[in-house]
Automatic annotation (TrEMBL):
CDD domains: FN3. This is Fibronectin type-III domain-containing protein. Pfam families: fn3. Residues 1-77, 79-171, 173-266, 267-359, 361-453, 455-546 form the Fibronectin type-III domain.
Amino acid sequence: VSWNDSSECQNYSGYHYTVTIYDTDNHRLIEQNTTDRSFTVEDLDWCSQYWVHIQAIGPTGLSNESTLLKYQESVAPMSPTNIQLRSTGPQKWLIAWNDDTDCQNSAAYHYVVITYDQKQQIVNKLNVSDRQTTLDGLDGCSEYWVTIRAIGIEGPSNESRAVKIHSTSAPSAPTDIQIRKYEQTKLMVSWNDSSECRNYSGHHYTVAVYDNQMQLVDELNTTDLSVTLVDLDLCSEYWVTVRAVGPGGHSNESGAVKIDAVSAPDKPTDIQLHRLEHTKWMVSWNDSSECQNYSGYHYTVTIYDTDNHRLIEQNTTDRSFTVEDLDWCSQYWVHIQAIGPTGLSNESTLLKYQESVAPMSPTNIQLRSTGPQKWLIAWNDDTDCQNSAAYHYVVITYDQKQQIVNKLNVSDRQTTLDGLDGCSEYWVTIRAIGIEGPSNESRAVKIHSTSAPSAPTDIQIRKYEQTKLMVSWNDSSECQNYSGYHYTVTIYDTDNHRLIEQNTTDRSFTVEDLDWCSQYWVHIQAIGPTGLSNESTLLKYQESVGVKSKESDPVKLYEIP
């Protein structure tokens, strides 16, 4: 401690000074005499406050006491640092800090902890002597900031930096995102949010719209659980994400949801096949889908064989497609699918295609006997695509009643018919069977398994009553005993007028009530299952003589009186 003195007589013997030091309670701690104008003080607590008083004593008495001088060693405290916050329960936080200030242990040294809301209004103020304290009773969904100031003998420190209280965790990512088109160009995006504090001020959502390259094309903020998107090109592809932003930070981005404002393409319809050249044909179709004119819209044309093997798969942006160099005698299935910005159409109806039509009816059917009850039948066929594996013929044999007696499937254009009854009448038809179905049945061809009957011979005419005569004959033909075998007996007058024509199954015939004085000609013909015999030789008859004519040309006989 040093001072000045302007008194006279300072240099005279006995002149000195009394230095007195008091604490803040006015207790005298030190009193010391010195002849110097300075004094050294030791062993004081320099973090405390003191008052210093000096008085001069000379040969003529005491000076007045000097003005009291207040003294403290330290400066104002430093701002608290390294502030830490830790949740210790619902709406309860432990806050702690560091302080590098000297003289913290003085009785008056303490801290002021102040809590502010988002509007910088003080909601809590605490005076504490420790370097930590507990904050409780805060609204868990509000946002707070905390500052600390140290208060020492020399006054307060500067306020510490403000530390945010994260009273809640960050919001949960929005879920169950729905997109609904409700006008021609408007989309409603809605979602759910299970986060705490979603109803508190400041909680909001950021809705981001990306194109298919994940470039941001729009971003909207809203406090609602839905937002309207307008003026998007609904034929382009977009993805939407939603993020919640609350007092505890922001959520993760929700899963990206694709905007399906237009439905997937309609399946192609009205598929047509047109032959262009011998080995070339065109598939064409209609499409009523939206967004056909947008980039990337195309069709996949797939052609399968009958075993469902994929032979051709081709993409095209046109509504037609040309196919070349297929085996036109095979069968194919054509399938078309539209692919647009919003997905795939359903597959079109499969269209069956084969170049050729149904087979033509076999023609020029030939029958040739190759033995007893055995026939070789052959035919022609002008149909295309006869060489396909499934191509064959059905040969059907019918009896006279149109009942099927034999049915053969053959791959060649000829076959053998055997085991047929040689005296029955049969008819044969042939039908070609191709991929496209059967041909019409060929014309029916009759099997002449035996020749026509022989002409009756040895014709006899005999009178056996006054007005009756019997005509009889012989027949050497086969098949006389089969159903339908009969004879036609015809009697003509000399002017070749037919007087009687009668059928009989016997080899004799009775004629009555003729004018026996006239002349007649008798003719007999056999009718069998395979046709008519030649006509028998005409036999001339007259009652008075009863002489038979000779064979062939008629010979006139004259009655002898």
